[in-house]
Amino acid sequence: MNDQIIVRFIAIGLILFFNTMVQAQSPLFVPDTISGSTIDLQFRNGFTSFYEGISTPTLGYNQDVLGPSIILKKGQNITLNVRNETQDQTTLHWHGLHVSPENDGGPHSIIESQNSWNPNFTVLDEEGTYWYHPHLHEHTEEQVTLGAAGVIIVRDDELSQMQLPKTYGIDDIPVIIQTKSFDESKRIQYDTALDDVVLCNATIGAYFDTPAQVVRFRLLNGSTNRIYNLGISNNIVFSVIANDGGYLSIPVDTDRLIIAPGERFEILLNLTNMQGEEISIMGYNSELPNGYYGAPNPSVMPMGGIPDYEFNSLNGEDFNILDLHIKEPTESGLHSIPNSLIEQTGYNESESSEFRELRFSPLQMGPSNMVNGPFGINNEVFDINEINQNVKLGNVEIWQLTNMTAIAHPFHIHDVQFYILSINGSSPPIHLKGRKDVVLVPPMGGSVRFITKFEDHSNTSVPYMYHCHMLSHEDDGMMGQFLVLPNTLNSNEVSTSDTRIYPNPTTNSVIINGVNNASISIYDQNGNLIKVILDVKNDDEIYLPQMPQGTYHFKVRDNGKKEIIRIIKI
User: Fold this and answer.
1) Helix (H) or strand (E) holding 292
2) Which residues neighbour 561 within 8 Å (Cβ) at sequence distance 6 or greater?
């Protein structure tokens, strides 16, 4: 046997050994729960055996990787004592929770090494699934990828009679879905497109012994960039009962569910009469449209791609995420899915007092930049010293997101939950009609409009964030920040900084104050451009005689400065 053949046999043996290591099944790790009016969390370094006999450095809260599931009650006052036991800075963001900006855990709330942060707040959120993770600017991807994340479950005593699975770890299961890249020594890599190992709750090849009854899975996409097209093997239908901010009005039956980084969905799977069978939660990513990270092509353009993307065995393929071994039911198990949940009404567009448009675009043009970035929002990258938007407390606002890049971006806003009005001009699918804090914006001119209300919390100096939840994009600066300011303005004028437009409402004209050589673009409530006025001076009167009664949005650009968007009702 010559040397070349020997080398080939060794190579094949190594490949088979590696595949065996990857495909070996392990029971799903279900984190312990932690609750009470005071919760202590230690951010610390650890070691985790993803592969037998090998210890991989990781990060976690109170444990080596991930963190305990935090159980909160609506209306509860809570103090969290967060201690940073590592040698690096960090922050801790309560993703989806409606808390004041000083308690939100964004990039401004840095926890230095060997120091603590002690937020205190009342839980105002609806019953649902939220999560926590670091939000240190330029290091969010690194810390989350190394394992720093955990689930938050909010319960509402008033909803305790709802006939839903609620025994944690038995028929109510948190599932944190991630993909990671490991080097030859099995250390976790970040800032790479070679995330070709699937983990559920930090478990490779995970399986779960589930009872033959209705089971609730709280699904969280905790991945850096990857989007999943979820389904059940054999195309079994499941019911979506909740998304980011709580329950839907009714269960929605489907056999596919696209979930983007940062998103959460709760699903019910009725396994009654299936004892002894084995099925799998799958990623049917061969069906994802191009332009979604995880699809056959991450770009919708024929040119340009992500380095090493084509070498990732998961991209554009179908794969197992979590195997379910169906065992005997529990004595108290449920065997039917309810017909209705919690009525969701949202906000009426006529209530809106502000319209804002955020445009996603590459900072440099070229096929590679269109899919790799770096990307900006309204042609700006994140500057921790610059406030991008000012919001008035109590405002009901419509935000329009327009994606001029070749890749889809999951947009996340802190502080509030919103209701999607349209995606690419059409009404959203029914499973997206509940309360949301993440929405996937399609590529190449794709758009999303949502409506939300800014209430309860304001601060004149500490901002909230909005950003792409692809963590590599966020770290590269695809993020902005906004202040929610006290409602101190006169009701007949609309203002940000020194710019005012009045009277509001009006009949056939408005006066603009605080500008010099400004251009004004006027849009209707559907985002259609109606009129452009150039060279507007301070105290100019703008006549609007041809515009029918309705709500209009004024976008002001003054001497090349950033856009200020205001609303006038006629």
Assistant:
1) none
2) none
The token duo for 515 is: 């500008």
The radius of gyration of the chain from alpha carbons, rounded to an integer in Å, stands at: 25
Q: Which two tokens stand for residue 151?
A: 């689930």
Task: Judge contact between 440 and 426, C-beta under 8 A.
Answer: no
Two tokens at 98? 């409606």
Beta strands across the sheet bearing 93-95: 33-34, 69-73, 150-155, 128-133, 93-95
323-378: per-residue pLDDT in tens? 999 999 999 999 999 999 999 989 999 889 899 999 999 999 888 999 999 999 99
Structure tokens at 492: 């007949």
Q: Which residues of 399-418 are buried (b: 16+ CB within 10 A; e: fewer)?
A: bbbbbebbbbbbbbbbbbbb
Identify the band that residue 525 occupies on the pLDDT scale cut at 50, 70 and 90: low
Strand extents, DSSP E, 414-463: 418-423, 438-441, 446-453
Rounded to whole angstroms, the Cα distance separating 408 from 317 reads 18
Structure tokens at 198: 């699937």
Residue ranges of E strands in 118-234: 120-122, 128-133, 150-155, 172-182, 188-189, 197-200, 203-204, 206-211, 214-221, 228-232
Number of domains in the chain: 1
Residue 158 domain-assigned? no
**Residue 407 is which amino acid?**
I
CA 177 to chain centre: 13
d(CA 559, CA 496): 16
Three-class DSSP category at 430: helix
Residues of the chain with pLDDT > 90: what percent? 76
Residue 364 lies in a domain: yes
As a whole number of angstroms, the distance between CA 487 and CA 489 comes to 6
Within a domain: 150:
no
Beta bridge mates, 38: 79
Q: H or E element: which one contains 554?
A: strand 551-558
> Residue 516 gets which letter from DSSP?
S
SS3 529: strand
What is the domain range of residue 444? 349-569
| Three-class DSSP category at 142 | helix
Residue 420 lies in a domain: yes
Encode pLDDT of 14-43 as tens digits.
443 444 444 578 999 999 999 999 999 999
Q: Are 44 and 60 in contact (CB under 8 A)?
A: yes
CATH number at residue 431: 2.60.40.420
